[in-house]
Amino acid sequence: MDPDANRNDRKRIVFLLGCFLLQPPFLTLFARPAEVLGLPLFYVYLYLAWAGLIVLIALAAGRGKPRGRLGP
Questions:
Q1: Which residue of 6, 20, 21, 30 could cross-link 45, Cys pair, CB 3.0 to 4.6 Å?
Q2: List of E strands, the chain
Q3: What is the pLDDT of residues 1-15, one digit of tens each?
């Protein structure tokens, strides 16, 4: 199978996961008056989900195909 097709599939999966993790019905699960290390649970979840998505996007993007030299 084509590596570019696999990369595109991974990008789609990360996008759908991000849509699921950051949609309001799922976010309301964490909107409670609880705290983690003195921080509200909602903000902890939001930033951890955001950071996790950034890592997954970086992994899904990969390095791509090497290109030729640009200069002489």
A1: 30
A2: 35-36, 39-40
A3: 666 677 788 888 999
